[in-house]
Amino acid sequence: MPNLKELRESRTRLITEAQQIVLAENVTNEQRAKFDVMMSDVEQMEADIARIEKVEALEAETRSTQRPPRGNPGANVDGNEREQRDRIRASALHKYLTGADRSEMEPEERAILREQRDITTGGAATGGVLIGQLGPLVWDAQKAIGSLAGEVFKKSTPGNAAPLKISSINDSGNTLVTLTEDTSITDTDPSFGTITLQSTDTIATLITVTWQELADFDAQIVSNPSANLEAFLRNKIGLRYMRGVETYLINGNGSNFASIVAGATLGATTAAATGPVYSDFVATWENLDPAYLPNAKWAMNNKTRGYLMGLLDGFGRPFFIPNPNTGSLDSILGHEIVISQPMAAANVAGATGVLFGAYDQGYVIRDSGPLFVKRLDERFADKLATGFLAYSRLSGTSVDAGTHPVLKMVTHA
């Protein structure tokens, strides 16, 4: 696989070539089909980029948290000793996740589990396991895929899942007054209010691993300490977690996870039912208070982004501009675009396909504890499999003190 720099350069080059095709005069069906293929390749490249970024983040996390092997003070630790310790650690956690009793473990493996106290909570008899490092890794994954969930504000209330009230203040309508002689001033208080962060909902996912697959992990772990059950579960659970949070953020879950789209303030309605044009983006931009502009970003799905690549601004230039120098995928009116795939396509009549604003000021994702994983030994025994139930408690609330930090663009019906 090409390195990260090569992938980013290839993606930018492909986007530019696709723009040239769709912006040409008298575009043929064959050219449209070629454009669609190129955009599909762009999506694949972005997925590869996200994977490489995630691997690099995991490696950085490992380097920063891994405890050096114990030895005599001042003794050098060679690569073979580190490699051996990695294998012991992976084997110990693998045995724990697969239900092995501590008495069945080697002394070195039991020592590893005692040192890595953040891995487990409770006793092995309960089958409970908390992957302490999974939470930060999940949020890193949000940033790696450029999801909207990585842009909003996060509030953690461990052990408290009840509704939580927070204060809001709006003093934006008050200013100075001119006093005439011998006239008293009238006091004007700020407008105080409360916003309720809803109770957290339990969200969960279940993964089953057959005993044959567990045996395969055992075989691989001998020669490759990175090919272990821990890494497999981190990856699969993390991706499901992120996919679910992003979907709830956009669409809501019908309970205590509100839709950011529904809670956003109308910024503009497009003039045409076929989708937005440059003037619609200008109208949305000018309706956001300048106080929020420094951190404001656009949000849309990849279908909308592909549609926008064929549009021009008022000067006849593409207003979708890839910017490899800043690391941003693209920008409109100088503001970065965040891709959120659960959003509707903006070129569909009546759809809300574009958001714009400072999302950390307009939405809060709340958790009342970390992400837990529980091993299910008996439930799937008749299928010769072991289940791993991952669950957490989350809620999401749109917040607006009165000056509308998040706007939405609605396509004309």
Look at the helices and sheets and give the structural class: alpha+beta
Query: How far from one another are the termini?
Result: 45 Å
CATH domain class of the domain at 149-168 and 192-256 and 365-398: Alpha Beta
Instruction: Please state the second-level CATH architecture of the domain at 149-168 and 192-256 and 365-398.
Output: 2-Layer Sandwich
Q: What is the CATH homology-level superfamily of the domain at 149-168 and 192-256 and 365-398?
A: Major capsid protein gp5
**Biggest β-sheet: strands ordered side by side in the sheet:** 6-15-11-7-10-9-8
* DSSP E strands, number: 15
Helix content: 25-40%
Count of helical regions: 11
Shape verdict: globular
CATH-derived topology of the domain at 149-168 and 192-256 and 365-398? Major capsid protein gp5 fold
Q: What series of H and E elements makes up the topology?
A: HHHHEHEEEEHHHEHEHEEEEHEEEE
Main sheet makeup: 7 strands, mixed
Low-confidence stretches: 65-77, 116-144
Average pLDDT across residues? 79
Model description:
The protein has 413 residues and is of the alpha+beta class. The radius of gyration is 26 Å and the shape is globular. Residues 65-77 and 116-144 have low confidence and may be disordered. The strands form three sheets. It has a seven-stranded mixed beta sheet with strand order 6-15-11-7-10-9-8. The longest helix is centred in the N-terminal third of the chain and has 37 residues, at 29-65. Among the domains are: 149-168 and 192-256 and 365-398, Major capsid protein gp5 (Major capsid protein gp5 fold, 2-Layer Sandwich), CATH 3.30.2400; 264-363 and 401-411, 2-Layer Sandwich (hypothetical protein PF0899 fold). The chain contains eleven helices and 15 strands. It has helices at 4-22, 29-65, 79-97, 107-115, 134-145, 211-223, 229-251, 260-263, 278-287, 302-308, 359-362; strands at residues 128-129, 153-156, 164-170, 191-197, 201-210, 265-269, 297-300, 321-323, 328-332, 335-339, 352-357, 363-367, 372-376, 385-398, 406-410.
